Amino acid sequence: MSIRKIQVNSLPRPNHPNKKQRTSFYFGLFVFFNLIFSTISGQWNTSQPIRMLALGDSYTIGQSVQPNLRWPEQLLDSLVQIGYTRDTLQIIATTGWRTDQLLSAIEGKKLKSKNFNLISLLIGVNNQYQGVPISLYKPHLLTLIDSSLHYLNNDTSRLILVSIPDYAYTPFGQQSSNPFLISQQLDDYNVIAKGIADSLKIAFFNITPISRRGLIESQLVATDGLHPSGLQYSRWVERIINKVDSTRQLSVSEIDITDFKIFNRSGEILIESSADNPLRSIHVYSTSGNCLFREDLLEPNRLNHFNLDSFIGSVVILYCRFEKNQAIQKLFLD
Fold it and tell me: What is the structure's pLDDT at 136?
């Protein structure tokens, strides 16, 4: 077994945890990953009223359509039609919001007490439109997912991700100097979102092909020439409701949990993984999405040691890519 060392600043190697500490750590780690990465069998019981939180931007708030035609409103109406009871719908979305602005908007809100049992997340188009580096999208989206699962008691079957529609197929988008580039960039964003959803076994609904009919079906575009119409939102909802109606749940498969261990002590992180699923890269992000540290193309060692003492006292998001899957963990570097 070899050890790969990557030092930011030198620190004395910490003492290995004693048996009692190891037992406590392993138990805590077991609980954490079972909460965050495993799918709790969240059956859709029609006797349980739906309490929905919709997070996003103009597409979620329904810019240029009547409130009752917003897609979250239409989704709840459709759920009622197939036997569910509607309780509440809270929308946290504003036209023009980027991922970082949505993150700021939900910070400090006492959303946990609302006892939501359905959360939708659609965000990212304004990152692309405003030229934000796409490298920030993944860490921001991971943080938003982490927060959403916290509000759902970590039940991944109650969280849905919706792809970003393609505004290149609107009269507004056609005025761009390169509509094809818009489509390419939005595809890149959606690939990231789909990859995260797949790795965490979260339902992902690809509505982008529907939006790409906006030029040949003008009724799918709102009167502002940019946003979806109520009819287009109806088609989104049809795609979502069909799965809900047929499975009574939004996530139906179990995630394959990687056999690995993470030790965190005094700014040092030790990641031990199985020989057949080695760690390939590690990225460390701040909660605001800034990349603090990264190492890619790691050798297939079973034991990787990283010094991150420069960030002691910080809350970070650890993103690990293994040979077969990925893992995300929020850590406090004490």
Answer: 96
Pairwise CA distance, residues 170 & 218, whole Å: 8
Report the CATH number of the 18-38+256-332 domain. Answer: 2.60.40.3080
Local structure of 293: helix, strand or coil: strand
Model pLDDT for residues 240-264, shown as the tens digit of each residue: 887 665 545 443 333 344 567 788 7
Alpha carbons 39 and 201: distance in angstroms, whole number: 7
What is the average pLDDT score of the chain?
Answer: 80
Question: What superfamily would CATH give domain 50-247?
Answer: SGNH hydrolase (3.40.50.1110)
d(CA 214, CA 171): 9
The answer to whether the beta carbons of residues 78 and 237 sit under 8 Å apart is: yes
CA 150: distance to chain centroid? 12
Nearest Cα neighbor of 304 from 279, 283, 328 is 279
Predicted confidence (pLDDT) per residue in 61-114, tens digit: 999 999 999 999 999 998 888 778 899 999 999 999 999 999 999 987 878 878
| pTM given for the model | 0.64
Cβ of 191: how many Cβ atoms within 10 Å? 11
Cβ–Cβ under 8 Å, residues 166 and 184: no
